[in-house]
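Example 9 (inverse folding). The structure is encoded as follows.
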């Protein structure tokens, strides 16, 4: 039996080696695709092409008796690496006559990411860091685009200092709140203004499929090239009113970050053995624990700024506290019927999204399970 098993394993190893050679060939072709896209100004992410290719490969796999989801999982992981490889080929510069791009706070992680992306696109990039304000006039006097990416609590003061930009300079910010910074930029600068919110962190391997929210300010015809440049980088653009954006972020960011903070705080006080919790956890519970723990691996000042950035956030969290208290009352009364009734009302509110989210989460959980090693 051992001999037979080893022979089969040797054959599997040989197939794995062939797969590696095929991946090397595929990534080499992707690199050439990136060069062509860069030359012609095409986005690295083409959703229609990706969808059509995946549908075709799924059909081919099914005909060969291979689970379609298997080939899709393999291809999606391969494509993620491909997008990162295409990025290294650089991007077409859509506004070659643009004067320097000045990134205020460009030594930070997000500022460095955008600086790298502009550099890969052939723009001249300058950085105005916290220690460079003595040279600010020299750095800003001929700026074509100024990008503000500093902590939320510093944003207003920094924007106030940008009151002598060239009239045709585009002024934008990357802050996770939009109403106040946009209002401030419109106040200090008479030229084109746009508020931006990248919905991703600085550790993304590429901008393919990442969302950049933009809130129109003034002179939107003057910064259309910038939005198109983001598209070439692979980003998906979402246009929204600044106030509507901030209300959405109250739920998406502030409330979620706060509940993760509160859960982590409670865990630390209960002081369980995390290794034991992980041993007991199915993939979904492990993933939920990981999302909470992830918060505490990052800068507390960032999350404090996000949560405390508006009174609306605090009021939303207080309303959540009220809902939490009402749910506790149901438990204290051992009111199963009341629990079921509330559950069904929420289920009705989610509607078809419940099943959509079920399907999406199942795919995520499969990937999470694959990454787990249990000795």
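The amino acid assigned to each position is listed next.
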């Amino acid at each position: 039996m051992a001999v037979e098993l080893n022979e089969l394993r040797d054959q599997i190893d040989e197939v794995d080696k062939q797969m590696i050679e095929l991946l090397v060939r595929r990534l080499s072709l992707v690199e050439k695709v990136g060069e062509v896209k860069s030359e012609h100004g095409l986005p690295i992410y083409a959703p229609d092409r990706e969808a059509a290719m995946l549908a075709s490969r799924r059909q081919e796999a099914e005909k060969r008796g291979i689970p379609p989801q298997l080939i899709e999982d393999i291809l999606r992981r391969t494509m993620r690496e491909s997008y990162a490889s295409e990025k290294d080929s650089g991007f077409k510069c859509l506004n070659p006559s643009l004067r320097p791009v000045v990134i205020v706070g460009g030594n930070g992680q997000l500022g460095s990411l955008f600086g790298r992306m502009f550099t890969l696109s052939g723009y001249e990039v300058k950085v105005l860091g916290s220690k460079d304000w003595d040279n600010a006039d020299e750095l800003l006097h001929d700026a074509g685009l100024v990008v503000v990416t500093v902590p939320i609590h510093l944003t207003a003061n920094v924007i106030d200092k940008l009151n002598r930009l060239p009239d045709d300079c585009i002024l934008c910010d990357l802050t996770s709140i939009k109403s106040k910074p946009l209002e401030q930029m419109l106040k200090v600068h008479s030229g084109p203004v746009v508020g931006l919110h990248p919905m991703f962190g600085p550790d993304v391997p590429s901008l393919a499929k990442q969302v950049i929210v933009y809130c129109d300010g003034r002179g939107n015809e003057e910064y259309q090239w910038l939005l198109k440049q983001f598209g070439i980088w692979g980003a998906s653009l979402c246009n929204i009113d600044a106030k509507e954006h901030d209300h959405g972020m109250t739920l998406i960011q502030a409330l979620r970050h706060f509940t993760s903070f509160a859960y982590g705080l409670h865990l630390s006080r209960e002081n369980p053995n995390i290794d034991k919790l992980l041993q007991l956890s199915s993939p979904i519970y492990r993933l939920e624990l990981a999302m909470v723990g992830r918060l505490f691996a990052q800068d507390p000042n960032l999350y404090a700024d996000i949560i405390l950035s508006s009174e609306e956030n605090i009021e939303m969290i207080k309303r959540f506290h009220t809902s939490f208290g009402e749910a506790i009352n149901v438990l204290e009364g051992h009111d199963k019927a009341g629990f079921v009734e509330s559950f069904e009302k929420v289920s009705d509110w989610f509607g078809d999204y419940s099943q959509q989210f079920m399907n999406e989460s199942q795919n995520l959980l499969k990937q999470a399970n694959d990454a787990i090693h249990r000795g």
